[in-house]
TrEMBL record:
This is Tat pathway signal sequence. Belongs to the ustYa family. Coiled coil: none annotated. Pathway: Mycotoxin biosynthesis. InterPro entries: UstYa-like. GO terms for biological process: mycotoxin biosynthetic process. It comes from the Eukaryota. It comes from Aureobasidium namibiae CBS 147.97.
Length: 221
């Protein structure tokens, strides 16, 4: 990670277009210890969509909804106010919308996390998925070793997520507890009780009001 203490570039998402609301949130999916069975289990909130687990159409639908606003269009006025976003006037205009598009980095991170998720179950997605990860998985069924382009994509994704976590670290504290199973193995478990977050729904509402890429291409990054 490169540290740069210079003034930050202006952002398309301004206080005027998207107020940075904060919310105190309890995270879903906690790792807990069952004192009766002496085993670790996941405590889930059934009212929240499932994003991880055994591959299923429901999980894929949850991710599709989460990423539906991944590539919004940028207006000419916004382009003028944000010269750090450089576009090739001939190549970068979308052939269907006739617009230029951008991505908020939070969606880049979610895209990458979804790509890593699919890589964990690449046999399933090689047969069921029609995105770039699925196509790579189909390729891998006939070409060994692991396709270098797909490995580069996954490594890029994990490293991008790492840098993003370090860029805006969550400093919510968790009390760590020691548990022991029936075989004498010890577990060190803890979950932060509350997190102060940007209000995700306000971001999605802002994003929903913009023009989006209808799927002409499937970006790789």
């Amino acid at each position: 990670m490169i540290h740069d203490n210079t003034e930050q570039s202006p952002c398309i998402v301004t206080a005027a277009s998207l107020p940075y609301k904060h919310a105190t949130i309890k995270f879903d999916d906690l790792l807990l210890f069952n004192e009766t069975s002496h085993s670790v289990y996941r405590k889930m909130n059934s009212s929240i969509p499932l994003y991880f687990g055994k591959p299923s159409p429901a999980i894929d639908a949850a991710w599709a909804e989460l990423l539906q606003y991944e590539y919004p269009a940028i207006t000419s006025e916004e382009m003028a106010l944000n010269p750090f976003l450089s576009y090739n006037a001939d190549k970068d205009k979308h052939p269907v919308t006739g617009r230029y598009h951008f991505a908020l980095d939070v969606f880049h991170n979610l895209h990458c996390l979804n790509a890593v998720r699919k890589e964990l179950d690449k046999d399933y997605y090689g047969a069921h998925d029609h995105g770039h990860v699925g196509r790579q998985a189909q390729y891998q069924q006939h070409h060994n070793p692991l396709d270098a382009a797909q490995r580069d994509h996954i490594d890029h994704c994990m490293n991008h997520i790492r840098q993003s976590l370090q860029c805006r670290p969550d400093l919510s504290a968790a009390a760590m507890h020691v548990f022991e199973d029936l075989e004498g193995s010890k577990y060190f478990l803890g979950n932060a009780e509350q997190h102060t977050c940007y209000d995700w729904e306000s971001i999605m509402r802002w994003a929903a009001g913009r023009e989006f890429d209808p799927g002409y291409t499937t970006p790789v990054g």
